[in-house]
Amino acid sequence: MKNYKLNSANLSNLSERIAVPQYDRSKVKTGIVHVGIGGFHRAHEAFYTDQLLHDNSVTDWGICGVALLDFDTKIYNTLKAQDGLYTLVVKQLDGTHTNRVIGSIVEYLFAPEDPIKVIEKMASPEVKIISLTITEGGYNYNEATKAFDFTNPLIQHDLENPQAPKTIFGYLTQALKLRKDRGLVGCTIQSCDNIQGNGHMTKKMLLSYVTTAAPDLVAWIENNVSFPNAMVDRITPVTAPIDITILSETLGVDDAWPVVCEPFKQWVIEDDFIAGRPAWETVGAQFVDNVVPYERMKLSLLNAGHSVLGILGALIGYNTIDQSVSNPNIATFLNTYMDVEVTSTLGDLEGVNLDDYKKSLLERFGNINIKDQIDRICSESSAKFPIFILPTVQSQLESEGSVQLAAFVVAAWAIYSLGKDENGADLIIKDAMQLELKEKALEAKTNPEAFLEIDSIFGNLKTSSVFVEAYIDAYQDIEKHGVEVCVKNRNANHFTKI
Ligand code: CS2
């Protein structure tokens, strides 16, 4: 079998072996600029949009993918070499793979190379939506001050260099300024990140920046830009070298960066698109009036569930989420956490059967084929805990509910932050706050509470004696007996209490 590099010229040769776009990509114009072309975007929004271009023969909703950071050189170069094409490998529960070449990314830009080009693209009249996957940490929100973090050196850089920004806030401000100055219509800025009220957050953070950087623009944004909230979901592990090899050896497709993901996908969006939108509902997205309860459900069950499995599993020495959830003690702990500490905080979720949802999560976590990396899950925990776990703790404290299991996970995170698992092996910790976490984790060895003093993560949680007591108890217990024994005891105690 002859191998072909994945690019436009080779598509017809590849079409006998793999599903390829059936629409004429050369006719598709950019209607969406998307910032952050990592795996998740390519498994989610770009996938839905590919399906839309395919089913509806529309031509005005192609995507221009923007790589914002220096760090993104590799993905930019890959997409450029492959004319924006890549393979989406859906790993089914039965071990089979469904492969499909996605064609919705029709343009790609590398912001550090040519910032003006990116600003112009965002400002161009045919672009109706600027969507974002810039990660939880990318919104520059400080949990302690509950405000935009102007001390961030990159933000200072953008304020001083508006024509050559480095952050999303600098780019959006310049692009919206151009739209206003040119008398153009506004657009929608659509967050696709795992943040409660992600549209609200985007608006709040952008307006904070604009109030300082370009105060005249504030009113225009208020009137001409919409920020729909959305819940996004599809588990997308980091592509492993073996994924590249399998495609090459079984199908003869040489794709330098395929994306792998689970079959499940969900996108629930508020219908608030000031300049129009694609009919994503025709390809499975749901449009609702208020997405906030769905977001809360997903963040505090799925994403928090991931963090629970990730941190506890990492300490035991596991590498993947399925290994962690296949340990019955950990699975019981997670179930109890979801049932006892999370469920009552979710309020009314009309039309959702929470029991089924929780059951399906356990199944998704257990998918042995996707090998979702614990390193991926634990990365940037300093941005994740305040969104995934701490709001639940806050709610529970307010209603005098249990916080025992959440406190246990936070204690495990403090120990994890020392950088060794329980067998003495090094943990790979990737976190923007790595140094501070380590410093506080070291202090916590003699004074466990020290870890809770990181205000930008924990806010004033250290003042809750109920939480602190449970946390210290868990910390000392884990140190003495290890995660697994403690989890087992907690499971048993919990059930006797009920
Ligand atoms: C994960 C998410 O990063 C994480 O910690 O929980 O990436 C998760 O896989 C996605 O949100 C699934 O939709």
How would you describe this structure to a colleague?
With 498 residues, the protein is of the alpha/beta class. The chain folds into two domains: 285 residues, 3-Layer(aba) Sandwich (Rossmann fold); 202 residues, N-(1-d-carboxylethyl)-l-norvaline Dehydrogenase, domain 2, CATH 1.10.1040.10. 47% of the residues lie in helices and 13% in strands. A six-stranded parallel sheet has the order 6-3-2-7-10-11, sandwiched between helices. Strands 5-4-14 form a three-stranded mixed sheet. Helix 21 crosses helix 22. The longest helix has 25 residues. The model has no long low-confidence stretch (mean pLDDT 96). The structure holds D-mannonic acid (CS2).
Describe the sheet with the most strands.
6 strands, parallel
What is the CATH superfamily label of the largest domain?
NAD(P)-binding Rossmann-like Domain
Indicate how many domains the architecture comprises.
2
Strand content: 5-15%
CATH topology title of the largest domain = Rossmann fold
Bound molecules: D-mannonic acid
Average pLDDT score:
96
Distance between the termini: 62 Å
